[in-house]
Amino acid sequence: MAWIQIRLNSTDNQAEQISDFLEEIGAVSVTFMDSQDTPIFEPLPGETRLWGNTDVVALFDAETEMNVIVEALITSRLVEADFAHKIEQIEDKDWEREWMDNFHPMQFGKRLWICPSWRAVPDPQAVNVMLDPGLAFGTGTHPTTAMCLEWLDAIDLVGKTVIDFGCGSGILAIAALKLGAKQAIGIDIDPQAILASQNNAAANDVADRLQLFLAKDQPQDLQADVVVANILAGPLRELAPNIIKLVKPQGQLGLSGILSSQANTVSEAYANNFTLEPVREQEEWCRITGVRKN
User: Fold this and answer.
1) Which of 43, 139, 189, 217 falls 20 to 30 Å from 79 in CA-CA distance?
2) Considering the entire predicted model, what is its pTM?
3) What's the rounded Cα separation, in Å, for the pair 290 and 151?
4) CA-to-CA separations, 265 to 54, 194, 232, 237, 258, in angstroms, rounded
5) What values do phi and psi take at 178, rounded to 5?
């Protein structure tokens, strides 16, 4: 089936209203992108994050009269009469196949590879985690996940216990186990994340060494040699007392999901309890690591 797409520039205040209106008049899908074509990063449930210059991209059946769509937008007064927009035909493709073709094995650090199941493993002698993109996010493609994987690859995990706080797909816990950890524990607020982590652990033959808990059910006395939390800056600050308790004395902590501009405020929440190392930055994101004081 062929499609036709309209792309128009909006503001963060109007983009959702425009999206709702386009769906009402027949759009089969509507997405938001910033004016630099950067996808929105993992919004919280019920939240849509928009930039000041937001592009709204709507997809319609190819038979749609787009001049009618444009006129309807103008009549709605959601846009100006001369609003900037672009209309183009979209080639019909096997989107699932194209998506699979574009997902390749990725190396993190010296030993670790994350590999989709439909690709050949580049180095059978490496530490290979088999992970397909699924319902819970976390495949290694985002800088925050990449920096956590690199950190896990660089530290000594042999015989240690690791907690993955906000485990999502389980990628960090599974990588830790494959890198030599004795046991890993995944914690998340989302039952879907627990299910995804279970399935991914089974696919990597480490399910017997991975414990999973919903946050409300985690044991009160839980502690580990290494704790990694790749979530968001706000929760990292708010949950700092809970996360600190999870780390044994002289244990190691890795935090990510943090914009570089947020590094100082997150670091301040942990500085009294940890000897913090230099902040690692990649693109606009960062990772904070440290060792818990006695």
Assistant:
1) 43
2) 0.67
3) 11
4) 28, 30, 12, 8, 10
5) -70, -20
Is 188 known as a binding-site position?
yes
Domain ranges of the chain: 3-90, 138-292
Count of all residues that appear for the chain in the document:
294
Q: Are 228 and 202 in contact (CB under 8 A)?
A: no
Alpha helices in the chain (DSSP H): 15-24, 66-76, 95-101, 143-154, 171-178, 191-203, 233-238, 240-245, 263-270
**Any binding-site annotation on 230?**
yes
- Using the structure block, give the residue that is written with the tokens 């386009």: 22
The top-scoring range by mean pLDDT among 45-54, 95-104, 176-185, 188-197 is: 176-185
Check the CA dihedral 188-191-193-199 and report its sign: positive
Topology adopted by domain 3-90: Alpha-Beta Plaits (3.30.70)
pLDDT digits (tens, 9 = 90+) for 81-93: 888 888 988 866 6
CA 214 vs CA 83, 167, 218: distances in Å = 47, 10, 6
3.30.450.180, 2.40.160.20, 3.40.50.150, 3.30.565.10: CATH of 138-292: 3.40.50.150
Is the dihedral angle over the CA atoms 187, 189, 191, 192 positive or is it negative? negative
Residue 145 marked in a binding site: yes
Q: How far apart are CA 40 and CA 80, in angstroms?
A: 25
Amino acid at 216: K
